[in-house]
Write a structure and sequence with these properties.
Layout: H1 2-29, E1 35-38, H2 40-46, H3 48-77, H4 81-127, E2 132-135, E3 144-145, H5 147-154
Parallel strand pairs: 1-2, 1-3
Helix pairs in contact: 2-5, 3-4, 4-5
Length: about 160
């Protein structure tokens, strides 16, 4: 009986010692993380590039709308059904080309703006010695907000 109790104490001691050594090893090898958060919506709202892109998009939409108005006027003046169909097809193709060109240019510029923002965030985070940067809207608690430090570089 005493041998069983002694064996049980040795097993418990070995378990506690192994668990403690494992915790010590884990705490020594884990690096400390410095976490920052960034408000991407605010950066986008304050960005001159984004504002210019929106203005360009509005101008291109006005151009498309004027093409549509021109098509409506020209088609309404025509009485020949065959010519009406030809005009409709012509303007449909023209509007589609304008729309595709507008969307392609918009997406390319948006990708460039996004990359510039990412590069600015990475540069500032490294400068401030942060290991991780997370979007503010996904973090419930913690992290240092570096939006104000990154904003001048994004503008």
């Amino acid at each position: 009986m005493k041998k069983q109790i002694l064996g049980m104490f040795i097993a418990i001691f070995a378990f506690i010692a192994g668990f403690s050594i494992n915790n010590i090893a884990m705490s020594v090898t884990q690096p400390e993380y410095k976490i920052a958060i960034i408000d991407i919506a605010q950066l986008l709202a304050d960005s001159k590039e984004v504002k210019e892109l929106k203005l360009q998009q509005e101008q291109k939409m006005k151009n498309i709308e004027s093409t549509i108005q021109k098509a409506k006027i020209e088609i309404s003046k025509e009485t020949n059904p065959q010519k009406i169909a030809t005009l409709e097809e012509k303007y449909r193709n023209e509007i589609n080309k304008q729309k595709i060109a507008m969307d392609t240019e918009y997406n390319n510029k948006l990708i460039k703006i996004d990359q510039n923002i990412k590069n600015s965030v990475i540069t500032k985070a490294k400068e401030l010695n942060y290991n991780i940067v997370l979007p503010k809207n996904t973090v419930l608690f913690g992290g240092d907000d570096i939006t104000a430090q990154v904003a001048p570089a994004v503008k």
